[in-house]
């Protein structure tokens, strides 16, 4: 897959998910706390993913330095989502089976397909943060919900990461780009299920 084709298709996929995400009931504290719980569950593996990718990349690969830099930037981010849950007293929020599938599949992509394939997962999540994060954050604040440090950092301070990943994808081979796009699409399908499960939590059935 050529760079221009990848950018067009990948951006369209991210935009599609953003449109869906913005229909979600972010003002509902049950929905939001459930979303934070799912986010905390997969963000806990981010540093492990990045370190594994870095270890598997040959020293001569053009993205070697970028992975090393990303490792430094992401260090400690899982503590933010964990602290948000504690602040909301939502540590006991259930983690869905789809959420476990979401992060577990990355070990397959990284080890069996190749470390650069993980960029599909990263690009997907960074795109959501950059494109929908600011609006979602404003809605949560307006609703009076507290415990949004993780979201604030990714929606306000780290929004350049989406463009950084797009630029990184320009530097890989056509075959690597094809794998990155496939991982992005599969990650998106699982994330749809996660969001729908969060929506169900927002309106629990009466006992």
Question: What structural keywords apply?
Answer:
207 residues; mainly alpha; Heme Oxygenase, Chain A; 11 helices; 0% strand; globular
Quick structural overview:
This protein has helices spanning 3-21, 29-43, 46-56, 64-74, 77-87, 97-113, 119-131, 133-142, 149-157, 161-169, 174-202. The protein is an all-alpha fold.
**Please, how many helices?**
11
The poorly predicted ranges are: none
Return the structural class.
Answer: mainly alpha
CATH superfamily: Heme oxygenase-like
Looking at how many chains there are and whether they match, the oligomeric state comes to: single chain
Mean of residue pLDDT values: 88
Polypeptide structure, described:
The protein is mainly alpha-helical and 207 residues long. Helices cover 74% and strands 0% of the residues. Helix 1 packs parallel to helix 11 (174-202), helix 2 (29-43) runs parallel beside helix 6 and helix 3 (46-56) runs antiparallel to helix 4. The mean pLDDT is 88.
Produce the secondary structure layout.
Blueprint (H helix, E strand, L loop, with lengths): L2 H19 L7 H15 L2 H11 L7 H11 L2 H11 L9 H17 L5 H13 L1 H10 L6 H9 L3 H9 L4 H29 L5
Helix pairs in contact: 1-7, 1-11, 2-5, 2-6, 2-11, 3-4, 3-6, 6-11, 7-9, 7-10, 7-11
